[in-house]
Design brief:
NIPSNAP; 104 residues; 4-stranded antiparallel beta sheet; Dimeric_a/b-barrel; 38% helix; alpha+beta; NIPSNAP family containing protein; 31% strand; single chain; Alpha-Beta Plaits
Length: 104
């Protein structure tokens, strides 16, 4: 399993738009075989940082998602919404291999 961690620099005056953008991805990710672990919006502390995490069974599955998502009209709509609203300034993407409890 591979987990993608996203750290966004958001515009505090555009949080409602960013939340709408995130909601789009919560619906989109399972369509491509991913598991979305959610968006984490500013609450206390820094008001311009939001996080998101999602996982795929493998790096190959993630790469396939990237190929398939590029041609998806709903993904294009989400990307256009982010560009139009400018709800975040930038993002950083990192990948992790989770260590999870063993199941019986």
């Amino acid at each position: 399993m591979i987990t993608c961690y996203l750290r966004y620099e958001v515009r505090p005056d555009k949080l409602a738009d960013f939340e709408a953008y995130g909601a789009m991805w919560l619906d989109l990710m399972p369509r491509f075989g991913g598991i979305h672990h959610g968006y984490f919006l500013p609450s206390e502390g820094a008001s311009d940082v939001a996080l998101a995490m999602f996982s795929f069974p493998s790096l190959a599955a993630y790469e396939q998602y990237r190929k398939d998502a590029g041609a998806d009209p709903d993904v294009q709509k989400a990307v256009a919404f982010a560009k139009e609203t400018r709800c975040f300034i930038r993002y950083e993407r990192s990948f992790f291999r989770p260590l999870l409890p063993k199941t019986a």
